Amino acid sequence: MKPVIALVGRPNVGKSTLFNRLTKSRDAIVADFAGLTRDRHYGNGRQGKREFIVIDTGGFEPDASAGIYREMAKQTQQAVAEADVVVFVVDARAGLSAQDHDIANYLRRLGKPTVLVANKAEGMLEGVQLAEFYELALGEVQAVSAAHGQGVRSLVDRALDLVPWAGEESEDAGEDSGAIRLAVAGRPNAGKSTLINTWLGEERLVAFDMPGTTRDAITVPFERGGQRYELIDTAGLRRRGKVFEAIEKFSVVKTLQAIESAHVVLLLIDATQGVTDQDAHIAGYALESGRAVVLAINKWDAIDDYQRQMLERSIETRLAFLKFAPLHFISAKKRQGLGPLWTAIGEAYRSATCKMPTPVLTRVLLESVQFQSPKRAGGYRPKMRYAHQGGMNPPVIVIHGNSLEHVSDAYKRFLEGRFRKEFKLVGTPLRIEFKTAH
Ligand code: GDP
Ligand code: GDP
What ipTM describes this predicted complex? Predict the structure, then answer.
């Protein structure tokens, strides 16, 4: 599990700038869970080998109306609750404000590991201007300049050092045991708990008594048809008697972490609600993480044929980037369509972890080139020589040759299609990388 860093502070201190710096780009906003989490942004960061999730609570304009501040406080509290460590940002140039004191009081009461950061400190003499921030009684003040990237590395180190388990090897029990790690993701009320309980109540499925705990995520091991599975919790599952119950409301971080540690993400969409922004964001995150995805439209029993057609159309447009994911209509409640879902999960897993030998990859590559060679671009003709597998979950194919930077996206898609066909890849993204010899 990646540690989670929350950036908090009053507006305009530079949280978004720091967020962009930590996640390396503006496009790194992987999950704007609009609605539920208004203006909380989640991004992936990496420093050396250490990976983490950053939550930015920025995006608020200071507003005279008290309502905005209350909303902001709520955003901050939710981000802090989800975080392992808090980075509290103040403005080194503007100095201390009453709002800084309020936030500091809140953080001190909470007792979460916190790093106090004075931003916009470029060109400032540390000892002099930063002295006043010690008043906040949150320990040492770290001077940074988010805009210029100064002090940011040591800030990340300090923050992650406060998380005892950050940087440990992740526990990949699932890899060794041959279990399929499965995350059931979806909006609140999509039917996740219902589906899981329907599964666990199936006779063909043997649930092991005690859910295992990996850090704070619960995994439920079970076996079905000789295949072992580990269900990764996204909803704070707790066992009550014979059934599992989602005790928490939707947790973005739990969903993101479950997606990352899964082999296969089963994305449950509520047929009665259609494809929402949040569904698209979860799907986008799964894609970015390179996870295999199976789409299940739940509550099929509650819609008519016309609604079903409309839904299929909206999936085609709104989830066009998930073309590789198989689509299933199910009813968790009425136990319909569940058999084919297992088949799809199994195929997605096989595809995601598929072994692709170099000779086969190279043969498919050269046959493809012979069938249709890449176009000459800017006086260069890309020359493909051989291919090897660069990774699994998601599968990565590395193609070696010359002038490969001139290969068009269309040609890349053509190659992807050929490789997919050869290895019967379904349900998983496939990444193709080019390595040019100079
Ligand atoms: P947020 O409201 O806390 O997310 O703050 P923003 O990231 O939007 O930044 C507010 C303003 O401060 C913007 O005009 C930024 O360009 C500026 N800013 C951010 N970081 C720095 C910095 O390190 N140095 C200086 N001088 N300005 C900065
Ligand atoms: P979760 O928040 O994703 O865990 O959703 P729940 O499993 O708690 O389900 C939310 C609501 O949808 C409950 O009232 C369920 O009874 C209902 N529900 C779940 N699956 C189905 C289904 O297949 N058909 C219908 N009609 N309702 C369902």
Answer: 0.75
Q: Tell me which residues have their CB closer than 6 angstroms to ligand 1.
A: 9, 11-17, 58, 119-120, 122, 145-148
Strands 212-214 and 205-207: unpaired
Instruction: Give the largest CA-CA distance in the chain.
Output: 71
Helix, strand, or coil here: 25?
coil
| Among candidate residues 342, 334, 261, 266, the one with its CA nearest the CA of residue 297 | 266
Q: Where are the alpha helices (DSSP H) in 112-226?
A: 126-130, 152-161, 173-177, 192-200
**Mean pLDDT, to the nearest integer, of 327-342?**
94
- Please name which of 25, 58, 22, 20 lies closest in space to residue 39, comparing C-alpha atoms: 58
Check: CB of residue 109 under 8 Å from CB of residue 137.
no
Q: What is the DSSP letter of 62?
A: P
- Among protein residues, the one with the nearest Cα to ligand 1's atom 24 is 120
CA-to-CA distance for 372 and 429, rounded, in angstroms? Answer: 23
- For ligand 2, atom 14, name the residue with the nearest CA: 189
Q: Which atom of ligand 2 is nearest to 302's Cα?
A: 26
pLDDT tens column, 61-106? 444 455 555 666 777 777 888 899 999 999 999 999 988 998 898 8
Q: How far is CA 120 from CA 117, 143, 150, 437, in A?
A: 10, 8, 9, 43
Tokens of 327: 């689509």
Listed in sequence order, the residues at least 6 apart from 222 whose beta carbon sits closer than 8 Å to its beta carbon are 199, 200, 205, 206, 207, 208, 228, 229, 231
Q: Which are the contacts of 359, defined by CB distance < 8 A and separation ≥ 6?
A: none
β-pairing, 205-207 with 180-186?
unpaired
187 annotated as a binding-site residue: yes
Helices 15-23 and 152-161 pack at an angle, to 10 degrees, of: 80
Q: Give 37's pLDDT tier (boundaries 50, 70, 90).
A: very low
End-to-end CA distance of the chain: 39
Residue 186 CB partners (closer than 8 Å, separation 6+): 192, 267, 268, 269, 270, 279, 282, 298
Determine the distance separating the centroid of ligand 2 and the alpha carbon of 192, expressed in angstroms.
7
pTM strictly above 0.80: no
By the 8 A CB rule, do 22 and 43 touch? yes
Mean pLDDT estimate for the chain: 83
Share of the chain above pLDDT 70, in %: 81
Give the integer Cα–Cα distance in Å for 15 and 9.
7
